[in-house]
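Re: that backbone. Tokens:
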């Protein structure tokens, strides 16, 4: 048999055998078998010594062509094997859509956050900006600039957690009003609401918590009056407790407003006839408000002869308790999931 015939035979044999290979491991074996040092070509190369010098180049050329062809078969088969492996993998990892899925619990906003968002939306709609400030405050902003100098008896209305003589946990969100007025360099008009946590040294019971949330509002400009305050609060009462609600103002006292009022809303539960929620009066006290005291404007650099305005403040827990019939303020903070889950939105 001529060398050429042997080479063609070997090539043909390799072609058929390599087609049967099913794994990378077998493919490596096949490569060693045909192209390795001790492989099929070793025998053929040994025939070289019987050739004349003239015959050798042609022999070399044929051998090379056969090697290249066999390497080609190996490469082709590798592509087929790779594809097969990928398909097998996909098969294994395919998802059975008929299997029951995992149940994901979707979190909900806390009821207090929901109420705050609702109140924010209402006031943003009336052109207010939402402002926030620190919960650890200095005495000057929490009291002094709000017309509550040191040793003023009205400070007793707010039992306070002092950190040092000059720093404390804020007792109301009013210092955010001070900060906003101070930061307003051109002393122009202001229209803000400030939601946030406040702290008072109270013994916790069904209606008291040492930590609670407030939303306060402040409007300062050249014309805003008590009539604007009343209209604003009526709009808020209707939004929070229903279109049929009315409000009434009773004279009151706060150091930072003058005149000051307590604001009652007609009872949403009995429509004013009298029930246990309104303690038989038909009215529910929801917030305090008033015309900004001149001293407060002056303390933050506003000219009280030119500027005036109103401020109001409400407890978010109280609004939520009235709205949703919650009878214990501690429920908001004890993180009982059964309580929290009731207020899905
Ligand atoms: Zn009532």
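Recovered sequence:
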């Amino acid at each position: 048999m001529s060398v050429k015939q042997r080479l063609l035979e070997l090539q043909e044999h390799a072609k058929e055998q390599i087609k049967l290979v099913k794994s990378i491991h077998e493919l490596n074996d096949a490569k060693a078998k045909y192209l390795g040092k001790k492989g099929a070509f070793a025998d053929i190369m040994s025939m070289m010594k019987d050739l004349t010098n003239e015959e050798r180049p042609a022999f070399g050329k044929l051998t090379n062509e056969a090697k290249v062809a066999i390497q080609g078969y190996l490469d082709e088969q590798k592509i087929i094997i790779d594809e097969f492996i990928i398909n097998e993998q996909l098969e294994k990892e395919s998802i059975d859509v008929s299997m029951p899925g995992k149940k994901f619990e979707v979190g909900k906003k806390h009821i207090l956050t929901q109420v705050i968002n609702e109140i924010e939306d209402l006031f943003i709609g009336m052109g207010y900006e939402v402002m926030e400030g620190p919960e650890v405050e200095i005495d000057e902003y929490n009291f002094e600039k709000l017309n509550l100098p040191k040793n003023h008896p009205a400070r007793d209305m707010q039992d306070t957690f002092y950190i040092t003589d000059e720093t404390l946990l804020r007792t109301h969100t009013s210092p955010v009003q001070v900060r906003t007025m101070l930061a307003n360099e051109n002393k122009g008009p202001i229209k803000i609401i400030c939601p946030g946590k406040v702290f008072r040294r109270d013994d916790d019971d069904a209606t008291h918590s040492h930590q609670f949330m407030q939303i306060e509002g402040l409007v300062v400009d050249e014309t805003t009056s008590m009539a604007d305050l009343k209209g604003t609060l009526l709009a808020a009462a209707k939004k929070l407790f229903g279109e049929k609600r009315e409000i009434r103002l009773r004279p009151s006292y706060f150091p930072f407003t003058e005149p000051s009022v307590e604001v009652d809303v007609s009872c949403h539960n009995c429509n004013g006839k009298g029930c246990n929620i309104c303690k038989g009066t038909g009215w529910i006290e929801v917030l305090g408000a008033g015309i900004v005291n001149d001293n407060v404007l002056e303390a933050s650099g506003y000219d009280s002869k030119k500027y005036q305005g109103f401020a109001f403040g409400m407890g978010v827990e109280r609004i939520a308790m009235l709205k949703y019939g919650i009878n214990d303020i501690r429920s908001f903070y004890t993180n009982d999931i059964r309580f929290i889950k009731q207020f899905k939105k």
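DSSP finds eleven helices and nine strands in the chain. Strands lie at 129-130, 136-138, 167-169, 190-199, 211-221, 247-254, 257-266, 283-292, 308-315.
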